[in-house]
């Protein structure tokens, strides 16, 4: 089984610049994280954009949907910022015959303490085990994007 991984940026790929005292979206981290995990499945990574999800708009979501829709792979992983992850997942509803899993992190993958590694591993398992559909894999749970939201105060996703 091959998993196609699209990256869009978000906190998972953020890096800290000391001189600027801010985080910026950097290179996608998922390839390195999967290599470090010694994975054995076939995957391909393609970067669609490097944006904080708060900066994404309808045109970005249309691009994501079109690329996934036209991709020949049935198993798709999409790394995405958590703030608008649910909105992007909802924009993908209607794509048939693919298992599409959105994943992100509350802390950048490059930080020593980050949820990125766990979330990616969980999302990979979700992409391999779930039937075709659109899913958000965060905080050790699989969410239906039509009934999920990010709880900013608690730093987690939950059902609504």
How would you describe what is shown here?
This protein has a single domain (2-159), classed as L-asparaginase, N-terminal domain (Rossmann fold, 3-Layer(aba) Sandwich). The model has no long low-confidence stretch (mean pLDDT 90). Helix content is 26%, strand content 33%. It has helices spanning 30-36, 58-70, 85-92, 116-129; strands spanning 2-9, 14-17, 22-25, 42-51, 75-79, 99-103, 133-138, 141-143, 148-151, 156-159. It has four helices and ten strands; from the N terminus they run βββαβαβαβαββββ. Strand 7 and strand 8 (141-143) form a beta hairpin. The chain is an alpha/beta fold. The longest helix has 14 residues, at 116-129. The strands form three sheets. A six-stranded mixed sheet has the order 4-1-5-6-7-8, sandwiched between helices.
Short account of what is shown:
With 160 residues, the protein is an alpha/beta fold. Helix content is 26%, strand content 33%.
